[in-house]
Design a protein that fits this description.
mainly alpha; disordered C terminus; homotetramer; DNA-binding
Chain lengths: ~230, ~230, ~230, ~230
Amino acid sequence: MPRAQREQQMLDAAVRVFSRCGYHASSMDEIAEASDVSKPMLYLYLGSKEALFAACIRREADRLIGAVSQAAEPGLETGEQLRRGLTAFFAYVAEHRDSWTVLYQQARAQGEPIVAEVAAARGQVVRAVTALVRRAARASVPAPRDGGPAPAGVRPDRGEAAAVAQAIVGAADALAGWVLDTGPEPPEETARRLMSVIWIGLEPRLHGARYPETECRSEHQQPECQQPEYQ
Amino acid sequence: MPRAQREQQMLDAAVRVFSRCGYHASSMDEIAEASDVSKPMLYLYLGSKEALFAACIRREADRLIGAVSQAAEPGLETGEQLRRGLTAFFAYVAEHRDSWTVLYQQARAQGEPIVAEVAAARGQVVRAVTALVRRAARASVPAPRDGGPAPAGVRPDRGEAAAVAQAIVGAADALAGWVLDTGPEPPEETARRLMSVIWIGLEPRLHGARYPETECRSEHQQPECQQPEYQ
Amino acid sequence: MPRAQREQQMLDAAVRVFSRCGYHASSMDEIAEASDVSKPMLYLYLGSKEALFAACIRREADRLIGAVSQAAEPGLETGEQLRRGLTAFFAYVAEHRDSWTVLYQQARAQGEPIVAEVAAARGQVVRAVTALVRRAARASVPAPRDGGPAPAGVRPDRGEAAAVAQAIVGAADALAGWVLDTGPEPPEETARRLMSVIWIGLEPRLHGARYPETECRSEHQQPECQQPEYQ
Amino acid sequence: MPRAQREQQMLDAAVRVFSRCGYHASSMDEIAEASDVSKPMLYLYLGSKEALFAACIRREADRLIGAVSQAAEPGLETGEQLRRGLTAFFAYVAEHRDSWTVLYQQARAQGEPIVAEVAAARGQVVRAVTALVRRAARASVPAPRDGGPAPAGVRPDRGEAAAVAQAIVGAADALAGWVLDTGPEPPEETARRLMSVIWIGLEPRLHGARYPETECRSEHQQPECQQPEYQ
DNA sequence: CATGAATGAGCCTTCATTCAT
DNA sequence: AATGAATGAAGGCTCATTCAT
């Protein structure tokens, strides 16, 4: 079996095991067995337990970011770009549960080198969203003609944009976990839920506003957008 | 020394150590030494490492929830109630960094019993926010007089309210971590940032809306609400 | 059992095992079993395998050097001082076979920290012998009256004295090993053999000179100085 | 490439690696790489790690013994024979540092089969020196005419001759190590140092005797016989 | 009540060794 | 002939946990 394929096989198994048991509770024996290779191969290919975990993180983060950034085509209007990115994110999480579990729950509890790795990946996402937020602000609000001060909140400073991005990413993470816990729903639906909160806001919605529906992707398992039973 | 006090002393030390080193990297030796008691005492009082960690989780979650729910007085208008709860949350996190680190970063990476514990605490918070969201919806939108269908999104079903609550809690968590990473700011400011996103929404803000400022609490270290430098 | 005593017990066992199997072939399991303690105790008391070995080296070297230097009383005439030191050395080796095996055969084959340790101990011995040699030279040969050059070899330069000391120590080591291999003989006899070579030299002996006998110590096992059968 | 040459190439690399890292710390991977052959070849040609080490020992011992015995021509007078042998030995060690390191430092610390191998080689040397010593004794001292007892030490019994040989070999080993440690000097000079101790003895030297110099071999790097600085 | 002393169990890692090609 | 790929076995080290005092 060629080397590259073996390596993927090992990473697949490792992600599976890490997501199920957590980093420390997963033993290299267990991962080796799940990979269907011997332990020395694991070490020969990946170096050490920590390196193996880091490799998992890197691969899964790359995949996730790739899926999201491919969906959010730069040409689109900002709101639509965000909505598509979120949809891709929720779709990815639904299809790669283990991958997301490792990234979101396991990677943050580890020591320095790994935390830095995952923080870098998350930072990449946050920066993209920050840029999106800032672009939206610039695009929609014309500069004041009379040279007076820009209306507050319209041109968010760097800190504000970053905070907004953090909130969006955090909310998306939480919703992803919620969907995994309470049962699947179409990613478009989850994205709509989130867009309703962050894009329209709660108060406008209370007076009837609603972020527009989008038809569910046909290939998804649940065509009708059923509500997950809550409690 | 009375038993209850000893126990608190142990929990204090344990939270400190767990938050610094993580669950697995913290040894009972280390915790015993930091508690200034002998290891057998630790076991006599708390039973096992896992039980000790669970006790930490429970205590810290209770404190956090207590602080938040005390701030969100039931009589208030819903938006204000949410804003105060968020402010209390960010204030608590800033003052009890270790506590939040353990709850947010460490507890989720562990095995079943502990994850269940922290999930229960989080569920309690989410339920409160869900109720708040639902109450806001009921209060602000009169039932349609003509018996026609309620406007979409106005009376969120249970799932929608829960999703909104999840998004809010997730966003708050992410912002708490962001503030810890990028440097302190008054909790009122962080709460305003989040309220701006979730309550007003992004699009209205792009046209000039802004969630109203609140004066900073006097005892806070930074009277003028400086923006953390971003990037 | 008090801590100090346990530690000696561990060192005893370790020296025994190391001398029998060599450093690398000795496992900590084996040493723990031979010490009649559990492996964690070994690590608690001695730190690591390398540290344990180093502790053995240090203790055994100290004992050996102590025995020899106690025997070579400073007041004696140099030849006698050397003879007594050698006798004490051979007696020590005969009674602490393992100790010497570890020092002479095992310690030199290890990595840096340990080799440095044993080299330091050996250096201590060599320096003592060097001083002895130099003192002997000074004492027995008056400075030339006429200011002419000292006769060659009479006042050995530092290098020469050191070389002589190295030769003596090396010869003693080899003889110690030979005695262990070929069967015991009184240490006085071995010392006399060596003194005959180095003190008198071979050539004079070839013409009948002999380093004077000394009576065997009464408590020794073999009163009559039997020759070990060779080959 | 013919088999014999490959094998020598492997042994060369093995000696180099063994002398640098020691037996256990040298891995077969490392040796294979240093030999520029694949690991299976190593096993095909040499059988096992232990066998490889034994082959190194055997080859290096043969070379060393060959060099020495070629120098000590049987026809010479005994003292001169010894001196030339020693000179050849010191020259060999200086030029084949690795070879001697493996023989002297590494081989003795190993387990039974290898220790036996090196002991056999050393025994061969010791026997040759023993014979030399005995021949010297026979040659220089006429048998007593009156049938009285031979003067003590004049006709050394087998044990005495063997002891003398051991002392000489041990002293030579120690001096070889000393020269390697303290910096090179002409082998003739080192041989003279040793001859001064064992052949003339210390006491006569203290009264001015000196083993005669021999001119340094011309090709040696340091024409003037400089003393290594000591301490 | 409180603790110094002690341990069973398990994990990461490495290496000599061998197939299948 | 020659090798890339693969592994069984074992060792150093640590830690949660418990007695005996």
